[in-house]
## 1
Amino acid sequence: MLKLTDTQTIILSRAATRPGSLAMPLPDGLHGAAAKKSVAAMISRGWLEEVEADRRRKDPLWRETGDGHGTTLIATGVGLAAIGIEPVAVSAASNALKAEPEPDTTSDTADTPKPIAIRAGTKQAQIIALLQRPEGASIGEIVAGTGWQVHSVRGMISGALKKKLGLPVTSVKEQGRGSVYRIG
């Protein structure tokens, strides 16, 4: 079993609730040499990853690279698994963080972070696992796996997965299966 310090647990827990699993900003009171030592240990264990910060999206900076750019920190799937959070959406979120941002056409109230943490063993985690399979999942298969009504499954896909988590859920009609949904 992994032994995490309180500081490491706080950093990873906060990252799990932020869009793109951003680990920045670090907890209050953690700066200077202590921050560098803690972050270096977490990077060496594979719990955090340093990625290029996007100044247009106002990503918080971990360090400047000297060429006018900077880096920020994101929690990896291994890091989230270390605190018991299912890292299902981490790859999609980190890919979205590394991708080109869409122009912001909303007001400043859209800057509030939306949680993307997915607890293991939940119906949401089950649905995401079904949608990540290469063959995807039809509404009927999801209903059979969760025991939910059809309208609840559709609401979960459009509301929680697409809108709140920002996952790229696609739908394709297949012969004999109807609409088949996939992530990615």
## 2
Amino acid sequence: MVIYRWLADAVVVFHAAYVLFVICGLLAVLAGALLGWSWIRNPWFRWIHFCFIAVVVLESLIGVECPLTTWENDLRRAAGEDVAQGTFIGRWAHELLFYEAPDWVFTTIYCLFGAVVLAVMVFVPPRWHSGKTGA
């Protein structure tokens, strides 16, 4: 069914956006810390970013497949496709996300990345703005 194929593509595009948010979010915070950007200290942005990577680290440590991957695979099967198949957008986004390596490699990478995000939370902490303008 075409709807399942589209939904699977939507899930994999969302998955790619999730990964990009985690990676680019950290890069933005690091750049912002060096360049004095105040928006990188926004607590909503920082805590959501931290929670996104914390979920990935936790899933990896307990050996749970990412629910987005499971959902995409289920939708592809419902569309009558092999899990490796998909539309152009789905395959393209999938290729950006998935690599062949032992599980321990990914767990190590996720944990190291999560540790860096945590360290940045400590050394470049988020701040609530008081709304005061001076004097």
## 3
Amino acid sequence: MKIKEAQTWAIKKLRESQIEQPEISASLLLAEILSVAKSYLMLNPDQLLTDNQEKKYRSWVLRRMKHEPVWYITKHVEFCDQDFVVNKNVLIPRPETEILIELILNQVKNKKLKIKSPMQILDVGTGSGAIILTLAKQFGDYSSNDSEKFSTNNSSHSSSNNKYYASDISDKALQIAKKNADNFNYRTKILFKKGNLFEPWENKKFDYVIANLPYVPSDKMSELSLDILNFEPKIALDGGKNGLEIYQTFLSQATDHLNKNGRIYCEIGDKQGPNMTKMAKQFFPKSQVEVIKDYGGFDRVISIQNS
């Protein structure tokens, strides 16, 4: 079977299974098997697949026909130009979450944050570790040749001494986060702990607290696409009644864990800005609260600055 023939077959099968944008899935899966860029498929339509390649492609397309996400099939996804391992135990990092990363980096660059180095940065509900690892890399704190062990010694104020923390309620999610940290050579730079919200961080305070917690209202879960509903972990999606139950607990605990002038950044649902702002003011009455919209004009991130 040639590349073009394989794609034509896959697109037909995926379309019959009502997979959205079947052409994209067909191309991504085949490009992964051939270890080439998608553009290569267009430039080499008559290249023959080996028997093993064709067999694997057929099996992957059959999995995709059942709405299994492409990234779970290939076992990795690109986020902020970096490659992350994923599986069914973690949410797939999405482009919307990159807005959160961009916001933090821009505020640091523009010196809008009155925080002295070294910074204490916590990622609550880390999942794949994509957020905390991206921040560590973007802040330029760690190189592949750095063997510095994690330490709570704050005697130095150089940016290279920033401290990174990450936690998750799921053991299996933490395994993936640690695997990604290993792949980045960042394992010794980030302290990982298991626990619910701030439970693992008793008596510890932070300058940045980032959280991408469940925010889908329970009565809206059934409206999610089959890709998400049938495969991604429900524990990372269901935010309870009105979608903000977990965030309410999170904010109530955060009051004891945020340094003066520290900031909280949370990813939220597309219409949750007003309710989340009200909740933030309840727990941080003197704070500055800002809702940031995504590129579609929907609420996506809330920033809370302590004072």
